[in-house]
Structure formats: structure tokens, C-alpha cells
Amino acid sequence: MFLPPRHPQQQLPDHRVVFAVLVWMAALICPFTLSAATADRLQAVDVNADTIDGSLADDGESLLSGTVRITQGSLHVQADNARVTRTGGDLQRVLLEGAPARLKQIDDKGQAVNASARQIIYQPAADIIELLGNVVIEQPQGNLTGERITYHLGTGRIQADGQGGRVSMRMNPKPAKTDSGAE
Prior knowledge:
Elements: H1 14-28, E1 46-48, E2 51-53, E3 60-72, E4 75-87, E5 90-106, E6 112-123, E7 128-139, E8 142-152, E9 158-161, E10 168-171
């Protein structure tokens, strides 16, 4: 699984930190066996929104609103709004909101992974990503749907809740291997 690099001494310009974290969050939200496309991490991050209102200071909140689009390689993020909160220079919370907010990426095996929810929340201090409201995660290995899905990055643990409804999961069989060992 792709994890953001943890190099405290490595400092990116503040605006790049905000956008890089949004991209890392997108790559991490799929709780099955997502292997984010390695080459994507080496690509430039492109961000587009109708408005950006925020600060490059160590403390504060930045709001990207109106058809927010974030791309890096095969990773595509779409949201109505993105809110990034920093304290003491550290990222505290990233919130993507949409009707729905969507994430799409092609993994190292060339397979598409898609996720959508009304809210996607990344909290680095707690090491979790929450997807809230009509959550749908689709990938070749299977699908997971519910109203609330919490993914614990450190342990790989998934908690899914239907919030009064049901949680659904489909696990697809692995493709049969050929005599040459290929799938």
C-alpha cells in the first residue's frame, strides 16, 4: 500500500504540502489491497477550483471551492469543496465534500479503483480516513458500500456502518492462473 513519505526534515513549499496531502489521502482511502500507481508520486500535482481562499501560514484553514479537481498521474479527485486545516505547520484535517466527492486511480497492475462519498475526511494525527454518506468503493478485487466507512491506515482495519441501513461487500474471485503462471 502506498503511504506518504515521512521525512520531517523535508520541507515543501506550503501550498505544495496542502495539495500533496490531498493526493496522498486519495491514494489511501481504498481499504482493500490498493496499490497506488507508483509512478503517480513522481508526477506534478495539478489543482483547479473556482476559488481558493486560505493562508500559507502555519496555522489556519484553506478552502478550495467550486468544481475542485486535483490530478497527479492517473489519480483524479473531484469535489465540490476541499477544506484543509493546519496547526503549527502540521496538517490536522482534510475534508473533501461533494455530491459526491470522487476519487479514481489506476493501480500498478493497471486496474481502476474508484471511491465516492458525500464527505471524505483525512485525519493524519489519528491515522484514519473516513468516508461518510452513500459510500461506494469499487475495484477489481471487490466492492464495499455503506453510509460510513473508516479506514485505519496504521493497522489496515476497516469499520463499516450502514447508519440504520445495511453494509454490503462483494469479494470477487481471483482470476485463474494460466499454465505460464500469468493471470
